[in-house]
Request: fold
Amino acid sequence: MEQSGGEAAAKRAKGPDHDAGAGGEDRLSALPDDVLVLILLRLCIEDAARTSVLSRRWRRIWTLLPELRFGIIQDPYLLRESLSASDVPLRLLRVCFPDASAQSLAVWLPAAVRRVSGELVFFNLVTGIAIGNEEDERGTFELPYFKKATSICLDLGFLGLSMPPAGVFARLTDLDLTDVRFHSPRELEDAVSSLRCPNLQKLAIRNTKGLDSINIDSESLQLLELRNLRGVLQVTVLAPALKDFTLWHCFILDQNQPVVKISAPQLKLLNWTDSYDPSSVHLSTMERLQTLSSFFCVYGKHGFPLNHACLALLPRFKTIKYLILTLCYLMEIDNLDYLMEDMTMLPDITSLKLIVIAKGHAIGASAFHVLRLCSGIKRLALVSYQFNLKWL
Reply:
């Protein structure tokens, strides 16, 4: 039957999408797997997994994802099930788990070992309830042997960590450990050695307990960051390729005598915000050093340890290309001494970055005092912050 002009116009207005919506062709599902994977990568893993109910075509697509980013997940068995749903190598696995215990990690980590071929990131989100519990109650777990991982970042909320006794992390280049209670310092030293981690380039250890000493012997390491290692008494670093080294509040928190030996002839950047005593701190010749970072408190009591460290460290370097100097004001400065006059010399520098943590105070006098000591600089960056530091 011939259609009237009005009927034909109405059909054209509905278009092909009307037919698809009424049970026509599913063009999205007809896309190749790799295109659908790119679409699902824009979703969180929970939403990506829900697409499996759309049709038989979608049932397995989420299992092909090379990256899994879990939000806050509380069921370790569900996490293990998700990881076991596929054998596709993961270039990224990111997990956030509230109040994790050693037992909960033991449930899913073996499944992660089988799949992670890139980066593993784990955050233990410790609540106020868990903080009040004894750390030993949450146990100690042994880090599995991730032979294919290239990067491991663990924020453990002070769970106990035991390093694997054997195995070579042949592909590992980055290791980042935060809020860790170590089972044994010897295990850590062995695990990050050149024999066990021949390609390790970046090592960061922050906020730890259980380390009375740390000895790093690595031929490949290029960046080393040590922050807040509570109770540490001795640090030794033998790293011929090291270019960037940070030592931040490892000795000063417990007022320990710093016993440090650093052999790093290729070092280019040294960030030292800790106790310093030339009689017990031995730094190798650093002919390639270009950047030095230090800290000074503007007001306080004479002999303040960080100021003493700064005044003792800076004269060791006669010439330096780039100096980063942080000046910090305490919130309350009444009845405190003005300490800038203790600083009488700086290295011969080309560039200066002066960071001032002002906390509402006028910074002119302290800033100009520093500038008078380095009148020959060619480049100056002045940065002022107005905030508190938790450790002050």
Summary: Residues 290-392 form one domain. The chain is about 20% helix and 35% strand.
